[in-house]
């Protein structure tokens, strides 16, 4: 058995004290009683005996003190153990509370040094300046819920542009095409590749709060110390100094984003911040991946640049390491091509054979799922009207079989894009910028029990033409009930307008959807009311009114 310290200490002290005692008695007798004058044997024994009694008394007193100290030590040890157990219980309870309320977390900013490890050990070799900044490979700021274990991670790098920013339109296009189930199995990471804190915060605050809270959106930015000195780069490929600096930083941006995304999901999809997407693009990607029988490295869902490139997450460390080897030499899409050459091309065979071998690792999907829509490049002063010919025609509205109704609006309609067409699923509705007091109204030919509604504004070509600060209102068919609401207020806790409408919802991020309390009874009309002036035109691309009969 293992002895406790409190039990061993008294025994050691007693064992050491007895030899010292006898030695002290012997020495004391020689000093106090020298050989001359001689003493009798009896006197010597009496004197020595008295000293021995005194030392024994001191030893007994010491022993008692040690025993008392041991007792107190055990008591304090027990108290400390109890305190530690209580602390463990408190921590465990708080951790459980955190786990149980993850879904309720508010959108918050977290500084996370050392908590999001990058998986590239050679990064310090290619970027030696990072040895001086231990936190430089960790995101400087992050918004989100730290979701992992998803099927698809989408990465969108974005930088400050001189004339126009397309990020919000890109996000709207992506999220528009995602079902609620798909949102649970993917992450969209926005990488703000700037070190200006105020700009980073302004962009982060402009994204969709609801999607950040749900976990589908994350926003990160790099520390300034991540970037090496880009002021004295060697000019290559005949590019100007500005272009060399731009493409070099771009390579570093893609590398940072890929390494952050790598542990979060099975596949990584590289996107850009100025694109629109096709309907059901997630299902199309999954289907194309499932069709592949051979080992691939990149699947291409757009023919333009670095848009719509799908990688296996397990391949990203190798890909990024190759990027970092040559980040100062060539653009990112060229580096991917060189990596494929290194992996499969035989220098002793011709270019045709090489292209054939590379096509086994880089497989093109048609039609394209992503279209470039930006005009102003992130490279200052550059205009680029790039379009993917394989993208096809954009679907600008979504049709539903809605119940018969009379439609009416105070908005100024643009050309042939009438409200009746969007209600019947024939086209979108497009109008000039709404002002406060404008409305869109659907009056049913017969009052109906409406279960749910969906109104979506904006479309793929004009995702920014949304309805802002607009409420959804319903008019109960029961006139007595309407009068009671106006006089006494709604018993359903909905605000009531002067003409008897109940305000049951509002547009958020361009969309209004929800269920209707069946206790309201039959509905005579649904109205969209504009509360304040809008700076942009308005498009309704989808109207769905689901009744109990449909």
Automatic annotation (TrEMBL):
What Pfam family is a match, any one? MGAT4_cons
Q: Name one GO molecular function term.
A: acetylglucosaminyltransferase activity
> Which residues belong to any copy of the MGAT4 A/B/C C-terminal domain?
405-542
Q: Which GO terms describe its biological process?
A: protein N-linked glycosylation
What keywords are annotated for this sequence in UniProt? Glycosyltransferase, Transferase
Q: What is this protein called?
A: Alpha-1,3-mannosyl-glycoprotein 4-beta-N-acetylglucosaminyltransferase B
Pathway named in the protein's UniProt entry: Protein modification; protein glycosylation
Cellular compartments per GO CC: endoplasmic reticulum; endoplasmic reticulum-Golgi intermediate compartment; Golgi stack
Q: Which domain of life is it from?
A: Eukaryota
Spell out where the chain crosses the membrane: none
Q: Where is the MGAT4 conserved region domain?
A: 119-391
Organism encoding this protein: Chloebia gouldiae
């Amino acid at each position: 058995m293992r002895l406790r310290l409190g039990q061993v200490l008294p025994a050691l002290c007693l064992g050491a004290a007895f030899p010292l005692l006898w030695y002290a008695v012997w020495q004391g007798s020689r000093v106090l009683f020298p050989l001359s004058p001689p003493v009798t044997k009896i006197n010597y024994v009496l004197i020595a005996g008295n000293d021995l009694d005194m030392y024994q008394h001191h030893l007994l007193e010491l022993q008692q003190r040690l025993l008392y100290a041991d007792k107190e030590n055990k008591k304090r040890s027990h108290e400390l153990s109890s305190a530690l157990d209580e602390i463990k219980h408190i921590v465990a309870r708080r951790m459980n509370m955190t786990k149980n309320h993850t879904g309720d977390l508010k959108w918050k900013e977290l500084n996370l040094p050392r908590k999001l490890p990058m998986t590239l050990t050679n990064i310090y070799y290619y970027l030696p300046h990072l040895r001086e900044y231990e936190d430089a490979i960790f995101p400087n700021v992050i918004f989100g819920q730290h979701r992992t274990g998803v099927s698809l991670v989408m990465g969108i790098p974005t930088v400050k542009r001189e004339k126009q920013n397309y990020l919000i339109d890109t996000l709207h296009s992506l999220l528009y095409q995602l079902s609620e189930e798909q949102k649970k199995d993917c992450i969209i990471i926005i990488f703000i590749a700037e070190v200006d804190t105020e700009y980073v915060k302004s962009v982060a605050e402009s994204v969709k709060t609801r999607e950040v809270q749900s976990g589908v959106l994350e926003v990160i930015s790099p520390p300034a110390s991540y970037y090496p000195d880009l002021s004295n780069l060697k000019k290559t490929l005949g590019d100007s100094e500005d272009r060399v600096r731009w493409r070099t930083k771009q390579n570093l941006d893609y590398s940072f984003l890929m390494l952050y995304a790598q542990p979060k999901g099975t596949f990584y999809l590289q996107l850009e911040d100025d694109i629109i997407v096709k309907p059901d693009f997630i299902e199309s990607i999954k289907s194309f991946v499932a069709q592949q029988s051979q080992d691939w490295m990149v699947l291409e869902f757009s023919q333009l640049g670095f848009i719509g490139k799908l990688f296996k997450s397990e391949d990203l460390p190798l890909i990024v390491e190759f990027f970092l080897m040559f980040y100062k030499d060539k653009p990112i899409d060229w580096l991917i091509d060189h990596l494929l050459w290194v992996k499969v091309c035989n220098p002793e065979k011709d270019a045709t054979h090489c292209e054939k071998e590379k096509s086994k690792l880089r497989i093109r999907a048609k039609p394209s799922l992503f279209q470039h829509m930006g005009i102003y490049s992130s490279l200052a002063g550059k205009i680029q009207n790039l379009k993917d010919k394989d993208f096809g025609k954009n679907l600008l509205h979504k049709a539903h079989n809605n119940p018969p109704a009379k439609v009416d609006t105070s908005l100024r309609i643009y050309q042939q894009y009438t409200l009746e067409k969007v209600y019947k699923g024939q086209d979108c509705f497009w109008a000039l910028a709404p002002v406060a007091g404008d409305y869109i109204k659907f009056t049913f030919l017969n009052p109906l029990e409406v279960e749910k509604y969906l109104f979506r504004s904006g479309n793929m070509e004009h995702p920014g033409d949304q309805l802002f600060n607009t409420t959804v209102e319903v008019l109960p068919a029961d006139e007595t009930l309407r009068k009671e609401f106006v006089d006494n207020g709604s018993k359903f806790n909905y605000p009531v307008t002067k003409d008897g409408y109940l305000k049951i919802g509002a547009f958020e991020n361009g969309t209004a959807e929800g269920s209707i309390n069946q206790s309201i009874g039959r509905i005579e009309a649904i109205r969209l009311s504009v509360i304040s002036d809008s700076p942009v035109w308005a498009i309704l691309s989808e109207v769905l009114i689901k009744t109990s009969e449909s």
